[in-house]
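STRUCTURE REQUEST FORM
Protein name: UDP-N-acetylenolpyruvoylglucosamine reductase
Source organism: Lacticaseibacillus paracasei subsp. paracasei CNCM I-4270
Requested output: structure tokens
Priority: standard
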Amino acid sequence: MMHDEPLSHYTFTKTGGPADLLAFPKNVAEVRALVDDARDQGLPLTVIGNASNLIVRDGGIRGLVLILTEMKTITASGNQVTAEAGARLIDTTEAAYRAGLTGLEFAAGIPGSVGGAVFMNAGAYDGEVCNVISSVDVLTREGELKTYDHRELKFRYRHSVVQDTGDVVLSATFTLKAGDKPVIRAKMDELNARRAAKQPLEYPSCGSVFKRPKGHFVGPMIQKAGLQGHIIGGAQVSKKHAGFIINLGDATATDYLDMIHLIQKTVKAKFDVDLETEVRIIGEPGQPK
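Status: completed
Returned output:
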């Protein structure tokens, strides 16, 4: 257990204030014990995956924070791949490839964890995890182990039932199809090349900041609004892809949030479109420490 630990050490943006308490459970029993302790002590509990599509405000997070990246076992059996919540989605796609299973190629470059992917129904290149997830094991805040089937997960765009319940995702099972390994690898390589060509992977960022509004593409709207390359503090609207906000080196979470609000305000004024954030924003306001 770590005390007053800066979450900037773990977020993909390299920003964010401290967690009062931070733990990295290694298995379900440890998760259960920590959830039980937090409940019994009346501590707020926050669970994050690998913090790739996340902004933690500069005031940090009160109570107990669990980062599940130590829970990363991935197994393949038949036409299914089961991955623990802290496993990287990228590693899960590689496991599917090695097993000769197709259906996860769209996720080959998504940097998030499996738990995060379940939480927000992660997707890319016209694919979403809801199309291939058959079941998810969770721990409720009351300490009960539970399995959701696909229907019970209530997936929709960038949403699943665990956003509503607060359940802790423990693992997910993906049901895939037998495929041709060279074809699977070629598709993964193609999508990763497209991602590298279009996205600012060389800088810290929180990934895609905004949900795609119906009938519009976010990046071009931000470009036409004249904000591509705009800088607030250490945060910049990426010159490579305007849908991304990058950390030039000394950004704070407040810089990110100020940029998000400016983009929303400007796009609303110019296009009458309300941009909703895709990135999860958590924690307390405050000054960077």
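Reviewer notes: The radius of gyration is 19 Å. The mean pLDDT is 97.
Form closed.
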